[in-house]
Amino acid sequence: QTIKLTDFGVQGAESNNILYLREIDDADKLVAAMQAKKDGKAVVVGGGYIGLELSAALKINNFDVTMVYPEPWCMPRLFTAGIAHFYEGYYASKGINIVKGTVASGFDADANGDVSVVKLKDGRVLDADIVIVGVGGRPLTGLFKGQVEEDKGGLKTDTFFETSVAGVYAIGDVATFPMKLYNEPRRVEHVDHARKSAEQAVKGDQGQGVRRVRGGVRLPALLLFEVVRCRVAVLRRERWRDGAVRGQRPSGGQAQVRHLLGQGRQGHRCVPRGRLRRRESGHRQGRQGPAAGGRRGGARQGRP
């Protein structure tokens, strides 16, 4: 269920062209508004997937775009400050204005009832022809009230997504499951998690639980401004050490090792060309960073 600003009694939130994106009908309304307000000004409320992706889409369609979100950086539940800084810089380079640390507190409309002004809590005022709100959703758990144990707005599950009722499973963003990374139960609102949690539930139901793998989510690629052609190397993590990788670097360019979810770890680290080394038969894999200097196991620094 989409969280709407009208749920909180925000002044003027019922104005025309204050839009949300959840269903096909919502997408149709957004397209119609973009056509009616061609080359206008758009304010995007929210710094998550919806906010980032729609900001890019609006900019591609020649809108003057401003993003507004209360967090200190975009995607705070997934991105470290360093990674968020990269994305925010990239968006700024495309001409998107980013306003952080405040929220929309009210809206003004013109004589036709169309939104015209966004009022921010910090006192700033933004002109707007379109406002898109992406501040999350709520799981619909009402059907299970009093029947299944709940936690943090979702249905509480174990690591195989089985609820408090034996044989009943909850998958996707409705499930509150033990996330080992944070050592606490969490819900994950992403389509890839819906697929992966279903796979995990099937493993548990088939009795493949000798090694109880914690439920989790893989990070998706964000839809940005263009499709980038790239050469990809498959690298395997080694004991979660910063920069410890295994695999073969493609010729040319750079490789990057990034801790996307690791709390208290370095946000990212770049591996300059020539610093990743191929694993050779009978020798230990080399590592990037200061420890990579000199000779190790017959692998020479600079070898592809």
Automatic annotation (TrEMBL):
FAD/NAD(P)-binding domain boundaries: 7-197
Keyword Oxidoreductase: yes
Protein name stated in the entry: monodehydroascorbate reductase (NADH)
This enzyme's EC code(s): 1.6.5.4
Family matches, as Pfam families: Pyr_redox_2
InterPro entries assigned to the protein according to its UniProt record, in alphabetical order: FAD-oxidoreductase/Apoptosis, FAD/NAD-bd_sf, FAD/NAD-binding_dom
Region (Disordered): 243-304
Source organism superkingdom: Eukaryota
Biased composition (Gly residues): 291-304
Record family assignment: Belongs to the FAD-dependent oxidoreductase family.
Signal peptide interval: none
